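Sample entry was shown:
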Amino acid sequence: MSTYQQMIFVNLPVNDLDAAKKFFTELGYSINPQFSDDNAASVVISDTIVAMLLTKPFYATFTDKEIVDASSSSEVLICLSAESRAKVDELVEKAVAAGGTASPKIQDMGFMYGRAFDDLDGHTWEVVWMDPSAVEG
């Protein structure tokens, strides 16, 4: 049996790397200095999820495509699970306190609860709790 856990590295272009790092540390995440420099910051969300915040010029070295303005266009919705409804609200409230913008839409289906916020660069982060008994069932 393998102990390998697949990871996800979400690469996001940012306008101000220092402001983006401050935003995500205020949400309670840490910066891994081993994979961070003047062009990038490695935000550790969990053991298997890392957000790589890249300055736009550095991000552009990885693609020939136009970099969208996430404050006015959407290409991806990043969804994180939460361990409870309260943790969903807590993370969204931290994001707003750190300068993000909460979506006014709340998804409440009883067995599933979710909210969303935009970070400083307009990237949308959804936070969702699902009742474990509904998932197992």
